[in-house]
Task: inverse folding
């Protein structure tokens, strides 16, 4: 039996967050896909697709050619984690069945309010947290 996920973070979203953290650390510099992929130890192809999506949405500037690369289009303090999350994952689910499909006999799920609260709290947290705060969060 495969369950539903209340909050999902795909590899693409993780790559996007890491890449944006790197790019916003030095706004005056361009980074090649190869440089970022090497630093993160990830696939250049997968990273390239994520960076293209970020560029299309206006978070990243892209310059082609041998001296080209990617640079941040905005400061980290101007970008919420929710913006980046929803760009790649889509909206945070605010309800859903933990089992993946409704199995109970009740007309409404008894856990619906619980799931809605979790989704709402996560959305609020990501909306108020800026990319710049990732480097200041404690372990």
Result:
């Amino acid at each position: 039996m495969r369950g539903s996920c209340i909050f999902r973070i795909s590899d693409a979203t993780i790559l996007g967050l890491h890449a944006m953290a790197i790019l916003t650390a030095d706004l005056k510099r361009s980074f090649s896909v190869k440089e970022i992929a090497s630093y993160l130890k990830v696939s250049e192809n997968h990273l390239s697709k994520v960076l293209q999506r970020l560029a299309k949405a206006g978070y990243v500037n892209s310059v082609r050619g041998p001296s080209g690369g990617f640079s941040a289009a905005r400061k980290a303090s101007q970008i919420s984690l929710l913006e980046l999350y929803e760009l790649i994952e889509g909206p945070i689910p605010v309800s859903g069945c933990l089992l993946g499909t409704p199995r109970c006999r009740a007309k409404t799920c008894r856990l619906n309010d619980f799931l809605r609260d979790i989704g709402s709290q996560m959305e609020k947290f990501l909306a108020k947290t800026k990319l710049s705060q990732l480097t200041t969060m404690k372990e």
